[in-house]
Amino acid sequence: MTVRTLTPEQHLDFLRTWTADGGSASFLQTPAWGTVKSEWRRESIGWYDPSGRLVGAGLVLYRQLPKVKRYLAYLPEGPVLDWDAEDLRVYLNPMVRHLKKAGAFGVRMGPPVVTRRWDAAAVKQGVADASVRRLGDVPPSERSQAGARVVSQLQELGWRPQQVEGGFAAGQPQYNFQIPLRDAGGAARTGEDVLAGMNQQWRRNIKKAAKAGVEVTHGTPADLPAFHELYALTAERDHFTPRPLSYFQTMFSALLAEEPDRIRLYLARHEGDLVAATVWVRVGGHTWYSYGASSTEKRDVRGSNAVQWAMISDSLAAGADVYDLRGITDTLDPDDSHVGLIQFKVGTGGEAVEYAGEWDLPLNPVVYKAFSLYMSRR
Fold first, then answer.
1. pLDDT at 166
2. Would you say 135 and 364 are in contact if contact means Cβ atoms under 8 Å apart?
3. Which strand (E) or helix (H) includes residue 98?
4. CA distances from 358 to 35, 112, 127 (A)
5. What is the CB-side half-sphere exposure of residue 65 using CA atoms within 13 A?
6. Tens digit of pLDDT for each residue in 14-33?
7. Interior angle at CA 354, CA 351 and CA 355, nearest 5
8. DSSP for 361-378, written as a single string
9. Does the pLDDT at position 348 exceed 80?
10. Residue 9 CB: number of other CB atoms within 10 A?
11. How far is it, in rounded angstroms, from Cα 65 to Cα 105?
12. Could you say which DSSP state residue 134 is in?
């Protein structure tokens, strides 16, 4: 196996073929995402088998160390390759050699590999049990042997798991909440099926929003300032640092240029007032709820539920396999402020999903240690 630089067009063609054949790929592994993360140097790389066939691809983001031409090579939620391979060295060794030549002192990646799943009933039971504090304390509904094999191989090959508090890292979340849009046999679920899987409060809130006259429409990039105003208010209320408007403008410009239906803006209005707004992203059969905002004044009209239901319905109409509500922490502690996030998402009737997480391979131990120290002080 050899690893070579790809053009963005070659990278995108590979992802189209991969997802058309039933494979999954994160939007963080699309060539366009490299344009969004403009503060990083970017490179698309491809894996070629001995016959010259392209069998894997990845987006590498290079973060430079201050004043030194040495880089952390980062593949968020990637790379896209056959993680079921019997021996991952076949893929990882040529990748490491390529990145080392490019000046990397270390490599960080997030294998898109599931290790455990918990259905909604298991999560609810954990929340209700006063003795349970973490999702890991609840027996999973499913353990992935393939995921366990990947974790075991990475440890044997000298990769280090990133230690994260509650499942949230500086990079991407290890725990996500997802709604499967296909049943166990692979048949597409209907809107009625998905609604029936939701809890009573979610169904009631969706009906309440419709009865109150909440209207959900697709916005355009011209509507981003209105979205951002509501998003900034949400950030202030919920105590997180908002991204600037320019970030979302770049994101929409880059992703729409790559695929006309890669990203959408949803706007929920009540009597002309914007009460909720969200960003939806799609790659192949995977759709994501990426960003959200909601007003405090009209929470009783349930705009957040209405806009979520619109995105789920559109994902079903697009033939998607999964609707991903993105990150949750692993806390089930009722006294932890983060538990509200999982309680909101578990009402959709989906499942909590644990990924293998992010892993580092130091290539220059001295420089890597200096970088780790630098990042810990930031």
1. 46
2. no
3. helix 89-101
4. 22, 10, 26
5. 19
6. 999 999 999 999 999 999 99
7. 130
8. EESSHHHHHHHHHHHHH-
9. yes
10. 10
11. 10
12. B
Residue listed under structure tokens 């403008």: 249
Instruction: Say which amino acid occupies 100.
Output: K
- Tens digits of residue pLDDT in 47-71: 999 999 999 999 999 998 888 889 9
**Which residue(s) pair with 176 in the sheet?**
327, 353
The alpha carbon of 91 is separated from its chain's Cα centroid by a whole number of angstroms, namely 23
Taking CA atoms, 35 is separated from 16, 40, 252, in Å, by: 19, 9, 11
Our CA dihedral for 19, 342, 301, 199, rounded to 10 degrees, sits at 80
Identify residue 338 by its one-letter amino acid code. Answer: H
Q: Which amino acid is at 364?
A: N
Q: How far is CA 223 from the centre of its chain?
A: 24
User: Taking CA 144 as the corner, what is the angle to CA 338 and CA 360, rounded to the nearest 5 degrees?
Assistant: 65
Question: What is the amino acid identity at position 239?
Answer: H
Q: Return the bridge partners of 269, or none.
A: 215, 274
Helix axes 224-238, 245-258, angle to 10 degrees: 130
Structure tokens at 220: 């355009």
Question: What is residue 222's DSSP assignment?
Answer: G
Q: How confident is the model at residue 378 (pLDDT cuts 50, 70, 90)?
A: low
DSSP 226-259: HHHHHHHHHHHHHT-PPPPHHHHHHHHHHHHHH-
How many Cβ atoms from other residues are within 10 Å of residue 372's Cβ? 14
Residue type at position 376: S
Identify which has the larger pLDDT, 40 or 338.
Answer: 40
Domains identified in the chain and CATH numbers = 2-110+358-377 (3.40.630.30), 116-142+175-355 (3.40.630.30)
pTM value is 0.94
Please tell me what DSSP assigns to residue 186: S
From CA 215, how far away is CA 222, in angstroms rounded? 19
Helix, strand or coil, per DSSP, at residue 86: coil
Does 168 score more than 50 pLDDT?
A: no
| Rounded Cα distance, 136 and 33, in Å | 32
Environment class of 328 (CB within 10 Å of its CB; exposed 0-12, middle 13-18, buried 19+): buried
Cα–Cα dist 29/261, whole Å: 16
